[in-house]
């Protein structure tokens, strides 16, 4: 989920919120009466976290990281926080493994298809990275200033759309616009809706500007995606009629069709959900990696050497990308030192659960687990950025697979942990590595010299989101090996 800081939020609302003054006043008044009557009550038996001088709700919304860290230090066990939608229990990360094995639906199966076809999609990713970088960054040998988030979002939207929907759709301007804005619009709409009392939320949805762009996005997505689905079904039918095997499609329309086995699928809606889960998170991860590249030029150079050696020798394939082990370690360290979210494993308690320390999680409560990316026992000198940290761990006997970027542990929950850990992480890591190979060999990167750094990220609850306006500089360099396919 993306975030808006309180300041940005304030600047979003007055712009063209098409509610009349009377409507606003009425909503506020009803809202106040409602919230007094139904005051969100803390759960019994769990200390409620808040920083000094703040209400628990404001403390969590606007000072999430500080609230979390203070409470972890103060209470040795579980505590609760007051979120915008009621209380939530926070468990220290030593409970992560107890939580992970709670039985649930296996939704992950649908993603196996994507993970299994990573080899098939590598050429598509390489091809699209070549084309996208040409469009986004061009080939000037002069240092050029750019807004980091814009370029990275464009790149990630194109790469993931290429794999999810194929070449035509991924270069469709309107689809790219939807892919980039749908998640943020949904988030802002839900943020505004949460401020209204729940019986009025549906009503508010019809009036916030983001609600309108969401509805338009859904209509336009149907117009773009439906013909693509029809085309594919026609191609399959034609092949079958001619006694041939249907064309093998690597994209997600193809694998959703196969996984569905004849059941009805709402392809446009599925694509919008995929987009929501995939684009924002992958953009944040890639953007942070680019900042670490600017900050550690020596690491950038080591990564280049590894790319030249590995891709130079083996060419492009899923396996060669897997051999980029310093890059894998670098990405894991980047997300450890600058986590996307200090909490993870959002779960709803369907039946009371007793934890090993005797705590009982009440039925109907919501829980999450506090991350601990800086545990000094697991990570010596946790504050130091050490790009090869996980590579060295992998070189210890028997540890080859325990410290990959996609491995989840209670001490590294970038992709969550357990049954509901991110099923898209194998794909996201693969995409990220292909993109970084091109970004590193084709360009040099640095902070804008006159600024000497990059603005701090925005926060929302315990989540971080890279600055939307922060700039960096790049210039074209000559890649040592041929990365493009043609
Ligand atoms: C670097 C990029 C990404 C990050 C950091 C990320 C992170 C996460 C996290 C933290 C969760 C919650 C896990 C938990 O609660 O245990 C999650 C869930 C999920 N992610 Fe990702 N994700 C990324 C990319 C993707 C991509 C590319 C896709 C789709 C191809 C995807 C699809 C999903 C889905 C469908 C879920 C829900 C899983 C469930 O509820 O069982 N993610 N992701
Ligand atoms: C951070 O993670 C928690 C727990 O999974 C989740 O409830 C929250 O929405 C996330 N925050 C953001 C801004 O993504």
From TrEMBL:
It comes from Apiospora rasikravindrae. This is Cytochrome P450. Its cofactor is heme. Pfam families: p450 (PF00067). PANTHER family: CYTOCHROME P450 (PTHR46206), CYTOCHROME P450 MONOOXYGENASE AUSG-RELATED (PTHR46206:SF2). Belongs to the cytochrome P450 family. The keyword Transmembrane applies. Coiled coil: none annotated. Keywords: Heme, Iron, Membrane, Metal-binding, Monooxygenase, Oxidoreductase, Transmembrane, Transmembrane helix.
């Amino acid at each position: 989920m993306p975030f808006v800081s309180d300041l940005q939020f304030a600047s979003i609302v007055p712009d063209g919120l098409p509610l009349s003054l009377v409507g606003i006043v009425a909503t506020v008044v009803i809202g106040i009466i409602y919230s007094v009557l139904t005051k969100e009550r803390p759960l019994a038996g769990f200390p409620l976290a808040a920083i000094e001088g703040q209400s628990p709700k404001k403390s969590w919304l606007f000072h999430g990281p500080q609230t979390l860290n203070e409470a972890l230090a103060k209470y040795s066990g579980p505590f609760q926080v007051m979120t915008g939608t009621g209380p939530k229990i926070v468990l220290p990360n030593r409970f992560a493994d107890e939580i992970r094995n709670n039985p649930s639906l296996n939704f992950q199966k649908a993603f196996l298809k994507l993970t299994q076809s990573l080899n098939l999609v590598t050429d598509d990713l390489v091809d699209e990275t070549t084309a996208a970088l040409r469009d986004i960054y061009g080939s000037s040998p002069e240092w050029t200033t750019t807004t980091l988030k814009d370029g990275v979002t464009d790149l990630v939207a194109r790469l993931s759309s290429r794999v999810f929907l194929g070449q035509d759709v991924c270069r469709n301007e309107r689809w790219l616009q939807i892919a980039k804005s749908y998640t943020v619009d949904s988030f802002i709409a839900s943020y505004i809706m949460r401020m209204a009392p729940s019986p009025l939320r549906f009503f508010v949805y019809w009036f916030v500007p983001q609600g309108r762009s969401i509805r338009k996005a859904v209509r336009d997505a149907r117009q773009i995606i439906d013909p693509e689905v029809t085309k594919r079904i026609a191609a399959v039918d034609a092949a079958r009629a001619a006694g041939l095997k249907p064309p093998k499609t690597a994209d997600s329309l193809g694998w959703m069709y196969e996984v569905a086995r004849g059941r009805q699928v709402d392809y446009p809606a599925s694509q919008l959900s995929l987009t929501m889960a995939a684009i924002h998170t992958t953009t944040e991860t890639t953007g942070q990696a680019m900042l670490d590249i600017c900050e550690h030029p020596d690491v950038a150079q080591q990564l280049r050497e590894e790319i030249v050696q590995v891709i130079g020798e083996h060419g492009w394939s899923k396996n060669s990308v897997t051999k980029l082990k310093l890059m894998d370690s670098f990405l894991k360290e980047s997300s450890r030192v600058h986590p996307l979210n200090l909490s993870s494993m959002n779960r709803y308690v369907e039946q009371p659960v007793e934890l090993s320390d005797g705590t009982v999680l009440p039925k109907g409560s919501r829980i999450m687990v506090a991350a601990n990316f800086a545990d000094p026992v697991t990570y010596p000198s946790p504050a130091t950025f050490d790009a090869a940290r996980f590579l060295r761990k992998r070189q210890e006997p028997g540890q080859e697979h325990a410290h990959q970027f996609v491995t989840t542990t209670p001490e590294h929950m970038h992709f969550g942990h357990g049954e509901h850990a991110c099923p898209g992480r194998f794909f996201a890591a693969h995409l990220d590595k292909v993109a970084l190979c091109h970004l590193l060999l084709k360009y040099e990167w640095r902070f804008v010299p006159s600024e000497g750094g990059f603005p701090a990220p925005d926060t929302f609850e315990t989540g971080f989101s890279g600055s939307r306006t922060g700039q960096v500089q790049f210039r074209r360099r000559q890649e040592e090996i041929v990365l493009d396919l043609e």
